[in-house]
Amino acid sequence: MTYNKEIKRLVIKIGSSSLTSTHGEISRKKLERLVDDVAKLKDIGYEVLLVSSGAVAAGYRKLGCLNRPTSLPEKQAAASIGQGLLMEAYSELFLSNGYVASQILITREDFSDENRYNNARNTANVLLERGIVPIFNENDTVTVNRLKFGDNDTLSAKVAGLIDADLLIILSDIDGLYDGDPRINKDATLLRKVEEITPEIDAAAGESASSVGTGGMKSKIDAVKIAMASGIPAFLGRAGTPNILLKAIKKQATGTYFQLKSNSVNLNHKKQWIAFNSGPEGEVVLSETADVSMLGEKQLLPSDISQVIGEFKEGSVVKILDYERKRIGLGVVNYSSKQLKAYDTTEDKWEEEVVKNDNLVCHLESSLPVGV
After folding, report:
1. Which positions does UniProt annotate for ATP binding (predicted)?
2. What's the pTM value of the predicted model, to 2 decimals?
């Protein structure tokens, strides 16, 4: 098997439907096939990180539930049992192939704090450099809905940016992205190559066809947007297809390849954190005379701001709104809300900008999912 020199580091997202049987429990056969395929990539020399669902599916029977639970407490209880069982299975199977697996349970709060975000990146980098297979999952046992990533599609894209992955592979129960819903429209066509997520593609994204997954096609498209904005191409294909991982790397698989344009602008680590993880604490409204078209090319000055909404400290991330209250960006402020509210345009002459270019991400709503 040949090595693709353009790709070294992979993030592979495994959905619950890709690991479970028709009864909704973890399928040992599917898990073995997945681990064997990952081990083949490791044998060639690729660094692989998994984002794996399946904790609830692995644990709900042991909890005494005949069917997959629907209430949050039962789901979290099932996850607390299943996460250990799932990792035990992963560890055993990877060891049989000569590799060590590690577990990283994460919450959105871990990513919203910049220090914890950087610590997670450092940990993952050490593991990958030592030949370990890190397995990420959201810590479902303690996470509440308002602090969730949303689904593991979103988490996988954020993790891909976290570790500077060269490719994000999302394995699902569908061959890829179609121009319509193939469950309804038999004439729907598989899109083999996508360079831009257009409004038409957004509209074509449907809901999950699986009863065990949490993310539908819409969540996968949102994940791809995050990955592409971070400079990472992505592939969406059906789990269980023979040699799907190696074929995806070699661009020989059936599925959808999301490729970067040659002139695409990629966010660095700092701006990725601001855009996708920070959690804005307030808002600043630009004046009607502020040149919105130059936002991102020049620093944001105190005189550009007409209103400050909310309470925040120096160093917080805030939403930047135009005078019509449309969100046009996010930025790290150099002044507190109290200082900004007290600013006098006729008397105060502050030397430092409100937001520097290095700490500003512009026009999120035009190309990226809101609220991720």
Report:
1. 13, 172-173, 214-220
2. 0.84
